Every structure is written in C-alpha cells, then in structure tokens.
C-alpha cells in the first residue's frame, strides 16, 4: 500500500495550554528525555544559599519537577566562592534519589591572578592561576562524573608577563614549554588555553576520576573566539563534549541588545557541524529578555539540533524578574517544545549554506550570519567549504580559508547560485569574474543590520535565484526566519510587531506578530 503524505499544521508561540494544562510536565519530560532534555544550574553561591538543608532542597526539587526539568548542574566554584563539598554531595544525592540526572559545573571567574582586561577574567600565564585551576578541577572531579565549564574559559590579559611570553613565542604551563605558531595575541592565547585545558583541567580531573567527562561550553560571541583563546577545532578535539551559549537578547534592550534574532540557531547548528556527536546542548539565560525572546531561545536551540537546553540559572528563574515570567512562559510552552524537538529530530534541514571557517574574523561583517538569517531565506551552516551545497552564502569570514578563491572558482563551474557580501566582493574582484549571472551581491555598507533592510523587490529577486535549485518558492517580509526540511516541512518565526503573510511553495500562511508557525509532513 502506498503511503500518502499528509499535512500536520502547528502554529504556536503563545499557544493555548487548555489541552496541556493537565499534563504532568515531569512525566512528559522524562518520556522525551532521549529526544530533548531541559536542565538547570545552581551556581556555587546558590548551592550555599538555596540547597543548604533538606527543606530548601525539597522546594528546589518540587520547582524543577513542575518546570519539566530532569537534570541539574551543581556548581562548585564561581568568582572565588567555593561551595562546601558536604553541601554539594548531599544535594547531589537528594536530586539523584528524586530521579534527576546530576552533574557538576565550574565557572572560572576571578581565578588566581586577575586579567588586565575584564576584572572577572584571569591571567593564565601566571603560576598562581594555573595552580588554582588544577585545584578547582581536582575538587570537582572528586564529586561528579560530568563537569561543564561555563563560558568564561578565556583570557584577555596583556600584563607584562603575558606580553613577554607572547613576544618569545612560548607558552609555559605546569612547568612545560610549548611553542606558539604565530606572534599575534590570538595565537598566544589559543595555545595557552589549549595547554591549560589539557594539562590543568583534563589531566588532573581524570587522575582523580578516570570516568569523568568534561564539557567545554563556547560563548555566544562566535566572531571573537580566537581573540580570547577559544579554539573550536583543537579544544573540541581534546574535550569530551561541547556546548554553546544560545542566548538571544531583545535586540532593542538598552544594555543587551544589538544582536540578530537568529543567533541561537546559527551557533548551535554551526558548532554541531564542528563537534559532531560531541555536541551536547545549548545554554541560555534571562538577561535582556522578554517571554517572547526567551521562548525564541528555546525554540532555536532545538531547531539548531541541541539534545539538551540549559536554563540558566535556577535562582534567577525562581526568584527574580524577568526570570519568573520567562519560566512561566517556558513552563506553558514545554509540551510544544518537546513536540518540536521530536519533529526536528526526524528530518534533514535544507537551505542556502552559510560558510564560517573556524577561528575566522568578520572585520566589518561580524555577526552577519544572525542578521542574514532574518531575511526570510532558509539557511544551513557549515565550517568547511560547501562543495556539495545547492546554493551558498559567503562573507569576508571565508577569506580565513587560504584556498577560498580557488574553491569558489571551482564551485561556480557548476552554475550554482552564490550570495556574496559587498565587502567580500570587493576583496576578490581581481580574482573572480563577478559579472556572472549566478552571483548576487548583498550590499551591507559595513553595517550588518542592513541585511534586513533590503527593499522587498530586491529581496524577492535574490530569494528566487538562490532558492531555485532547492525547489523552494518563498515570499516573506524582512525580519522573518524560515527553516525548511527535505520532506517539505517548515518552521517560520515572525520577528515583526505585526502579522505577516508568507507563501511557501504556493501555500499561503499568516503568522501573528512575534509568533511562530510550523507545518510538518506526516506519512500515513
């Protein structure tokens, strides 16, 4: 008997919870944990203040169950605060007895000698910092089989000691000397943090606990990784797992704004391409959020392929605003988010391929990917030149690939459509004939936010060209994110303050202001 595809249409952001209101979120979350899990973290300070006795632990367990959280991370160290080992162990055992997975976490703020840059960050050239780093991870490995490192695992120090080491091209860690390939601060810091990771985190932790798995969590600020010592290739190779910060702020928030609204999707999917099976999950918080942007973080983390979502942190979500309102919104949306994770897990995303080589800088196009993602064009990501892509997007980041021009010339021989930013086009104009009909130039004029200011007519023409080989025909306004799948399913996010009308392959749909919609092709 033939199988006939049917449409299952789901559209939600502030969906009605009448059917789900009676659902036991704890049991529902346990049933879906293999597909997607929600977790939270108690900071070292919160372990001390909020988990110090059984009554407090009972309340914390009750709240986690009500939220559908099935895993907790207990932090041992943050900003020179050490949580007491007996307090940690007792809370750990109570949560485990209640049916939770429990892991450890370390936030390496104000360890040893303080950086000349940000005063929360440390100088890892200094012996005192190296010694305390070892102590922190030996302590934590004695309590947990899994440890996550929060995304302060970097340095911006330029003290005299660091400058001398950089100039000499030598990193000294735990008494051993390592050569640095290059004379830039990024070269020195990447080698320094790699060797500190290997010799003062992983080695001592495994000596204490041979079963320990250590997670490096990369920050949200992907275009600055290499400047501060993150190396997503080499550190990913040595750590057991990778995570990433998938925070999305309200773009108009005075303190936290200025970021594109598709950051979480781009970063989660890009890092998954680098890490493969090592890629665990995404971590987001309440800073600069509204309930709508908080849920967008959750949704995009899932769309990007994460297996787990970390809700940072328990104290803010339980006791502070906007954390409490964000938590209530997530609690209402949890059944729908778990359904979304189930649908995404079954499918292969398709779209124009965005290329960002690891450790690449964006010059005047930093963060361009998250703004281009709001142009109503479906995108997928890659850290390697997209030889097999049906259509591709390239920014100045691509020039970090020394063979980029040669690879692009070969790519163009197949007449596949390409979008180039204007800055990249200017840099390669002498080497590539840009008059080819398969080129589209995206004019940003040095401001990545101009990506979603393209006039409607020009955007439609661009979309028609790049989506043709994907067999997609889409009309949508700016400030829209579209995620497409190989079976014809799709998800749309509307970042506008008014309803929008979209058309995908001849079918028209209305998406409410700051809401989302989805359509899944199910087989019967």
From TrEMBL:
Keywords, sorted A to Z: Signal
Origin species: Crateriforma conspicua
First and last residue of the signal peptide: 1-21
UniProt lineage: Bacteria, Pseudomonadati, Planctomycetota, Planctomycetia, Planctomycetales
Source species, domain of life: Bacteria
Protein name (database record): Glycoside hydrolase family 42 N-terminal domain-containing protein
């Amino acid at each position: 008997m033939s199988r006939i595809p049917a449409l299952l249409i789901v559209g939600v952001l502030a969906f009605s919870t009448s059917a789900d209101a009676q659902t036991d979120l704890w049991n529902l979350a346990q049933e879906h944990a293999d597909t997607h899990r929600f977790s939270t973290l108690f900071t070292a300070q919160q372990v001390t203040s909020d988990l110090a006795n059984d009554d407090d632990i009972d309340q914390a367990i009750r709240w986690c169950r009500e939220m559908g959280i099935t895993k907790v991370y207990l932090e041992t160290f943050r900003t020179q605060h050490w949580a007491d080992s007996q307090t940690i162990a007792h809370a750990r055992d109570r949560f485990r007895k209640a049916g939770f997975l429990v892991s450890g976490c370390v936030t390496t703020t104000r360890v040893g000698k303080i950086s000349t840059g940000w005063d929360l960050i440390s100088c890892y050239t200094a012996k005192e910092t190296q010694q305390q780093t070892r102590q922190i991870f030996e302590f934590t490995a004695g309590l947990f089989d899994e440890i996550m490192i929060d995304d302060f695992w970097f340095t911006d120090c330029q003290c005299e000691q660091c400058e001398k080491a950089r100039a000499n091209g030598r990193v000294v860690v735990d008494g051993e000397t390592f050569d640095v390939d290059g004379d830039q601060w990024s070269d020195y810091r990447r080698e320094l943090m790699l060797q500190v990771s290997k010799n003062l985190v992983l080695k001592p932790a495994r000596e204490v606990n041979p079963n320990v798995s250590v997670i490096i969590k990369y920050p949200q600020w992907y275009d600055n990784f290499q400047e501060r010592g993150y190396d997503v290739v080499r550190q990913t190779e040595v750590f057991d797992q990778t995570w990433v910060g998938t925070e999305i702020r309200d773009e108009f928030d005075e303190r936290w704004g200025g970021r594109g609204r598709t950051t979480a999707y781009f970063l989660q999917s890009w890092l998954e391409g680098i890490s493969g099976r090592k890629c665990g999950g995404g971590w987001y918080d309440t800073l600069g959020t509204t309930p709508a942007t908080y849920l967008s973080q959750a949704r995009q983390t899932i769309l990007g392929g994460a297996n787990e979502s970390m809700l940072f942190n328990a104290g803010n979500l339980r006791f502070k605003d906007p954390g409490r309102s964000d938590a209530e919104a997530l609690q209402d949306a949890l059944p729908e988010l778990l359904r979304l994770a189930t649908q995404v897990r079954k499918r292969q995303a398709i779209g124009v391929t965005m290329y960002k080589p690891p450790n690449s800088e964006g010059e005047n196009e930093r963060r361009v990917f998250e703004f281009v993602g709001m142009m109503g064009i479906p995108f997928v990501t890659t850290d390697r030149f997209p030889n097999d892509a049906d259509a591709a997007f390239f920014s100045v980041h691509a020039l970090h690939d020394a063979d980029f021009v040669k690879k692009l010339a070969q790519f163009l021989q197949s007449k596949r459509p390409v979008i180039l930013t204007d800055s990249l086009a200017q840099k390669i104009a002498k080497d590539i004939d840009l008059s080819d009909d398969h080129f589209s130039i995206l004019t940003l004029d040095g401001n990545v936010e101009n990506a979603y200011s393209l006039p409607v007519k020009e955007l439609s023409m661009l979309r028609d060209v790049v989506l043709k080989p994907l067999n997609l025909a889409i009309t949508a306004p700016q400030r829209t994110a579209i995620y497409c799948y190989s079976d014809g399913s799709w998800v749309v996010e509307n970042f506008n303050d008014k309803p929008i009308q979209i058309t995908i392959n001849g079918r028209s749909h209305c998406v409410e202001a700051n809401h989302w919609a989805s359509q899944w092709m199910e087989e019967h």
